[in-house]
Write a structure and sequence with these properties.
619 residues; alpha+beta; Glutamine Phosphoribosylpyrophosphate, subunit 1, domain 1; Rossmann fold; 2 domains; 20 strands; globular
Length: 619
């Protein structure tokens, strides 16, 4: 993706099922579990570089010894900083072996609310001097109705210190955990238990299905929530629409959870089929005794897993994602050929590094098939007169492929003036000179998505035009991004979407600007309604125009001043997106069809903010 947006967060969990001595005897280290956690986090570095944190629980700590450990850090080097701190603690206190626990959780964070810093870095920790009441919480999520959950727990008598969703969920789950511990205390006392036996019985009976079921009944949004208790229970819960991803691996030695499948394969050297996906509304629970069970917490709704995971966010090393990204490129071939008039001799195909490379490979495979058909027809049409040399020449023709856009350096602009910044930004990418015949060749460059169009205008189109091609065609393997996300990705402002800005410009140009005021009034009129009754009125902004009309306006918007080459833009269709990614129907970014009621409320709020001068973004 040429435009930088913040990714979803990443979760990693490891639960050892054997005594620590087992791992030392088999693998040569008692730190095998924490080493695996480190690998799972490093392999998911793409999912969060604002901060990271880990939590660890010791199952057999003696009274008076610490049994819950947590460390957090901020910045791009947070993972290394965390594990350096663990190493220092180990060296400073070898007799205590801090963090050497059987239950571990790690988290990588990108903020989606603008809130950052160590106090917002997961895992969050709620402490208590009863082991089972200690709770560490981390996840990949965003609630659309955090205000409702906040009001609910305040009405119950709690007093949260913050109104961020993670704080609220921690307090909500912590309250229910306390209530469950109290319930089990009364039951066990009635059985005549006391002392250490009473405590052990309470810990063994904590009902996480009950806790998670009552808490999640209020949640609207996309989420994968992971948690540890001080007594050694572990859980991970996925939202009922399956919006956010979660995978797990089970063996007789370990239970491991991650946000992406291939990181589990790499960390544990296992096959694709050995990794399972957590079902929507399902929880994986591991008790302090090591019992593992799958629990249906919420009824599964219509599955709408995030399609952006497949297009961009997740690692392309996943078997299915790799195939899907190639399919996205292949499905663009008919439209691309129309734009270049099937003129293979005078068209050079390339990609915008680095995440579009797999889609590019799929597009090239489709182009080669089309070119082979073209060559076959030429051979058949002239078969009576062709010489061997002419046949050889035709068969030798290939799709012209070049690496035209190179991400050269990460420039840090130290000059304040806007003009100077733009001039520097234009040089973030470079091109391979001497590959294009000026005024003769068309350049086709594929990107995986176009969000703001800023980098295209300021850098990529500018640098591609230096070789003065006859035409530049920018291809997006995803459809037009028209609507904000509210489930855990930092795309929340209407004004940052170039497709939205293009539609607004067209409304003004065609004398339809009154529709903007009408949509604003309709959004305002819904503000006091329950989220279940709110509809997405922002769709009306796009209704007067075809996809092609909006794409053509976007092409004008990303054309830099003085560009010597005309620019066109080709987008994937939503229909082809679903053909390529049939199991990931979450397309709200493109269609405006939000899977939960809170999505409609937030898209209307985003439009109101834009209309009133907030969140206009930078095209």
């Amino acid at each position: 993706m040429s435009d930088r947006i913040k990714h979803e967060c990443g979760l990693a969990m490891v639960r050892l099922l054997k005594p620590l001595d087992h791992y030392e005897q088999r693998y040569g280290t008692r730190w095998w579990g924490l080493n695996k956690l480190y690998l799972l986090m490093e392999k998911q570095r793409n999912r969060g570089q604002e901060g990271a944190g880990i939590a660890s629980v010791k199952l057999h700590a003696e009274p008076g010894e610490e049994y819950v450990f947590r460390e957090r850090a901020v910045g791009a080097g947070a993972i290394q900083e965390l594990f350096d701190a663990v190493r220092r603690d180990r060296e400073a206190h070898p007799e205590l072996e801090p963090f050497l626990g059987e239950v571990c959780m790690g988290h990588l964070r990108y903020s989606t609310t603008g809130r950052s810093g160590i106090s917002y870095t997961h895992p969050f920790l709620r402490r208590n001097n009863w082991r089972c009441r200690n709770l560490a919480l981390a996840g990949n999520f965003n609630l659309t109705n955090v205000d409702e959950v906040f009001d609910h727990i305040v009405a119950r008598g709690q007093h949260p210190r913050h109104n961020a969703d993670t704080f609220i969920m921690l307090e909500q789950l912590g309250y229910l955990l306390d209530s469950e511990a109290d319930r089990q205390y009364r039951r066990c006392k009635e059985m005549g238990l006391s002392g250490a036996a009473l405590n052990e019985a309470i810990e063994a009976r904590i009902d996480f299905e009950r806790i998670l079921g009552e808490a999640s009944e209020l949640w609207d949004g996309g989420y994968v929530i992971g948690g540890l208790t001080g007594s050694g229970d572990m859980f991970v819960l996925r939202d009922p629409h399956g919006i956010r991803p979660a995978f797990y691996y089970l063996s007789d030695e370990v239970v491991a959870v991650a946000s992406e499948r291939p990181v589990l394969q790499t960390a544990f050297d296992i096959e694709t089929e050995q990794v399972a996906e957590l079902e929507p509304g399902e929880a994986l629970i591991v008790t302090k005794s090591g019992e593992r069970r799958m629990a249906r917490i919420r009824p599964a709704e219509r599955p709408t897993p995030c399609s952006f995971e497949r297009i961009y966010f997740s690692r392309g090393s996943d078997r299915d994602i790799y195939r899907e990204r190639k399919a996205l490129g292949r499905l663009l071939v008919p439209e691309v050929l129309e734009r270049v008039e099937s003129d293979f001799a005078h068209t050079v195909f390339s990609f915008i590094p680095n995440t579009a490379e797999v889609a590019y490979m799929g597009m090239v495979e489709g182009l080669e098939e089309a070119f082979n058909r073209q060559k076959c027809h030429a051979l058949l049409a002239a078969r009576a007169t062709l010489t061997e040399a002419e046949i050889t020449d035709i068969m030798a023709m290939r799709v012209r492929r070049e690496k035209l856009a190179l991400k050269d350096i990460k420039l840090r602009t130290f000059i304040a003036e806007d003009a100077s910044r733009d001039d520097l930004a234009a040089h973030v990418y470079d091109t391979t000179y001497g590959t294009i015949r000026a005024g003769v060749d068309t350049v086709v460059a594929i990107d995986d998505s176009i969000v703001r169009g800023t980098t295209l205008r300021r850098s990529i189109v500018h640098i591609l035009s230096r070789q003065r091609p006859r035409k530049i065609v920018i291809v997006s393997s995803s459809p037009q991004i028209r609507y904000p996300d509210c489930y855990g990705i930092d795309m929340s402002s209407m004004g940052e979407f170039i497709a939205f800005n293009a539609a607004v410009e067209l409304l003004h140009e065609r004398g339809l600007a009154g529709r903007i005021d009408e949509v604003y009034a309709a959004c305002r009129a819904q503000e006091g309604l329950p989220k279940e009754r709110i509809v997405n009125h922002v769709k009306r902004i796009y209704e007067p125009f075809t996809d092609r009309e909006i794409a053509d306006r976007i092409a004008r918007m990303i054309t830099p001043p003085g560009c010597p080459s005309p620019v066109e833009v080709v987008y994937q269709t939503i229909e082809n997106l679903h053909r390529a990614c049939p199991n990931h129907a979450g397309d709200w970014y493109f269609s405006g069809d939000y899977p939960t009621p809170g999505g409609n409320r937030l898209v209307n709020r985003a439009f109101i903010d834009w209309y009133e001068g907030r969140g206009r973004g930078d095209r």
